[in-house]
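fyi for ur records
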Amino acid sequence: MRVKKVKIGIKSLQDVLNDTKEAMKKLERGEKVKSEKGLYFESIKGFRKAITPKRIELLHVIKEKQPKSLQELARLSGRDIKSIVTDISILEELGLVDMKRKRAGRKESMPIVDYNKINLEIAV
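which gave:
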């Protein structure tokens, strides 16, 4: 299994703008700019709103049990399908869950978590 680290950080809007400005200056001078992948929130409050304990629990269930559908994930987690669909949509948008879409028969989607850790960085 492939190990993928998801970098999560807290950055103010001003920090993001400053980073962008510095990258643009480097590009103008013809220097290479190192691409940094990550998921950044403006505050701890924003992070907590997006990454809730229930969503972290879903990530763990997906990683350990490898459900074949969202219905199976709902059954394994003991939660209703509507809340599962909402949480998975948010986790997918954040890049924390990949969805493998099935075409045959009923349209089903299989959630995939192919990493072992989430690292949180907080700039001070």
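The chain has one domain: 5-122. thats all i got for now
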